[in-house]
Specification:
It is found in: Cell membrane. InterPro entries: Peptide/Ni-bd (IPR030678), SBP_5 (IPR039424), SBP_5_CS (IPR023765), SBP_5_dom (IPR000914). GO terms for molecular function: peptide transmembrane transporter activity. Belongs to the bacterial solute-binding protein 5 family. It is a lipid-anchor. The protein has 568 residues and is an alpha+beta fold. It has three domains: 120 residues, D-Maltodextrin-Binding Protein, domain 2 (3-Layer(aba) Sandwich), CATH 3.40.190; 137 residues, Dipeptide-binding Protein, domain 1 (Alpha-Beta Complex), CATH 3.90.76.10; 216 residues, Roll (Dipeptide-binding Protein, domain 3). Helices cover 23% and strands 20% of the residues. It is built from 15 helices and 25 strands. The strands form seven sheets. Strands 1, 14, 15, 19, 20, 21 and 22 form a seven-stranded mixed sheet that branches. It has a four-stranded mixed sheet with strand order 2-11-10-9, with no helix packed on it. A four-stranded antiparallel sheet has the order 5-6-8-7, covered by helices on one side. The longest helix is centred in the C-terminal third of the chain and has 18 residues.
């Protein structure tokens, strides 16, 4: 499974969304109402609601003067960028590493470690100018040498992570990968603060892809030999970064503890300590007792009213740039038939599951792009409204005929869907509705629920499933939501027309032209259904009313503002 595209178990939104593209993913702490709340009206909160009575803040939270605590699903401990085992690892490293280039509130590139950059007329060579006096958390200088090292090891033949940098076709990258060269010719260090890189062909996402996190050559490269990257595993729990915080301690199943990085280029964070609470528990209880300072919840009126009644939390509505989906095991013969996948989409009452049961705090998804994306469209898109009769017709056409027990059969095999999900109220709703829906169209539905993400991911990796619930990380460029369908990342999906259109969309920086191509791509995927698109989320952030300067970016979440958070 790709770690960058299928990061979140369950069909609910992450509580923390720190990164824009490859390292998104986070704790699932939203809650959902039961199906009997379908008649309630959608939540109307449209702007920040400030805590009306901080005197109600629990003593536990009042006593914290230099520490902010959040909940996070237990990460694996692989805290080196480009080597994460889950999105939760990415949440941890995002506090310790900063990228060359970030994005602004419109999803456009903005300076971070790189002060500026230029693109050559042929759109192939990028030149980055680093800020002066950059340092890693151990006080050592951050220079162009470190950038070159980072790009280089990602081309090593032993690298098996999910970075997209090797896909850009950096000049000389393939030769290095094959061991035919001792350096990558397309990477040129001009001076300590300036580096250029030449790619094979124009790529609209190259700037942000190249502008990812930077690893210290002195630290991560001291034991580097071509073809040998296993040593980096020994450094996962001892990271040397350049972000706002430094890892102090990781206790699996309990917490990840950070302290402020005095060398952070934007200045030492205002709050000295930061903790991810990773122990299992009721997020509502943690918020109510003051054990955590920040969480997210589905934006139902019930949740909003309950949060308001606490008196001591600020409530901020937020629509993230993500989408959720049911991953389909296309290696299973029955699911290789497009008609069967379409029947699943028609036969599942997504409106009841993702919108009505959440009191309107959601929207049905039919394409791999969020509504806030500049490429989003509904033109020519099949909405797959709940039509069990249509689902049954498609299954008939696919040769699946109801047996004596009502379950469809073909060539002596019953039509069974083994579903994997994570433990949550929303999963409970999904299973209850799906069991009824699928039984009505002759499908034997067999759900399996996991208490933690790592267990679910392991099961998916093993291939013992038919459907599994996932959500994407934050998506900045439209291509971000499409990567999982490329080059066999979704095993069993190989459509040459998709690859052709995908490459065409990346080959130009003309926004209008890209939008037209993505419209074609969305129609293709909407028909192919290599995954079953499910929903977009509407959430609210609830956080300790003492926290000042918390802001949210549509594409970066809360990442950029964390160093500025201060407890008043």
């Amino acid at each position: 499974m790709r770690k960058s595209a299928t990061l979140l178990s369950g069909v609910l939104l992450a509580s923390l969304l720190f990164t824009a593209c490859s390292n998104g993913g986070a704790q699932d702490s939203t809650s959902a109402a039961g199906t009997d709340s379908a008649t309630q009206q959608p939540a109307a909160l449209t702007s920040l609601f400030k805590a009306p009575d901080l005197s109600k803040l629990p003593a536990t939270a009042q006593q914290r003067t230099d520490t902010i605590i959040m909940a996070l699903t237990d990460p694996s401990g692989a805290f080196t960028p480009y080597f994460h085992q889950s999105g939760y690892d990415g949440n941890v490293s995002s506090l310790m590493f900063a990228p060359l280039v970030t994005t602004n509130d419109k999803g456009l590139p903005a300076p971070s470690l790189a002060d500026s950059w230029e693109l050559s007329k042929d759109q192939l060579t990028y030149t980055f100018h680093l800020k002066k006096d950059l340092k890693f958390s151990d006080g050592s200088p951050l220079t162009a040498e470190d950038v070159a090292f980072t790009w280089t090891i990602l081309h090593d033949k032993a690298y098996d992570g999910d970075s997209l940098i090797p896909t850009l076709g950096i000049k000389g990258g393939q030769e290095y990968h094959e061991g035919k060269a001792d350096h990558i010719s397309g990477i040129k260090i001009i001076d300590p603060q300036t580096i250029s890189v030449t790619i094979a062909k124009p790529n609209a996402t190259a700037l942000l892809t190249l502008g990812s996190d930077v690893l210290s050559k002195a630290y991560y490269g001291k034991d580097y030999r071509f073809g040998h990257l296993d040593y980096i595993k020994d450094l996962h729990l001892k990271p040397v970064g350049n972000g706002p915080y430094v890892l102090e301690k990781f206790i699996p199943g309990q917490e990840v503890r950070f302290t402020a990085n005095p060398y952070y280029f934007q200045g030492e964070p205002k709050t000295k300590n930061f903790i991810y609470k990773t122990s299992e528990g009721d997020t509502w209880q943690y918020v109510e007792t003051g054990e955590i300072d920040f969480a997210s919840f589905s934006a139902t009126q019930e949740n909003i009213d309950k949060l308001k009644s606490l008196g001591f939390v600020n409530i901020l509505p937020y629509t993230p740039s993500t989408y959720s989906f049911l991953q389909v095991n296309l290696e299973h013969q029955a699911l290789q038939d497009k008609k069967v996948r379409q029947a699943i989409a028609y036969g599942l009452d997504r409106q009841s599951i993702y919108v009505d049961a959440n009191q309107g705090a959601g929207q049905i998804a039919n394409i791999p792009a969020p509504p806030i994306s500049w490429a989003y469209t509904e033109d020519g898109i099949n909405p797959y409204a709940y039509e069990p009769e249509k689902a049954g017709q498609l299954l008939d056409e696919a040769g699946w005929i109801p047996g004596a027990d009502g379950i469809r059969e073909k060539n002596g095999q019953k039509l069974t869907l083994h579903y994997l999900g994570s433990k949550s109220a929303q999963t409970d709703v999904f299973i209850a509705v799906a069991e009824e829906n699928f039984k009505a169209i002759g499908i034997d539905f067999q759900p399996e629920v996991f208490a933690d993400y790592n267990s679910l991911a392991s099961k998916v990796e093993g291939g013992d499933y038919d459907l599994a619930s996932f959500s994407t990380p934050m998506l900045t460029d439209p291509s971000d939501g499409l990567v999982q369908f490329l080059d066999g990342e979704i095993k069993g999906y190989d459509n040459p027309q998709f690859v052709k259109l995908y490459n065409e969309a990346l080959a130009t920086n003309d926004l209008d032209k890209r939008k037209q191509i993505y419209a074609e791509l969305f129609k293709l995927l909407n028909d192919d259904l290599p995954v079953i698109f499910t929903n977009y989320k509407k959430i609210v952030y609830a956080y300790n009313g003492r926290i000042n300067d918390l802001t949210v970016s549509p594409f970066n979440g809360i990442a950029s503002s964390v160093p500025q958070w201060a407890l008043k």
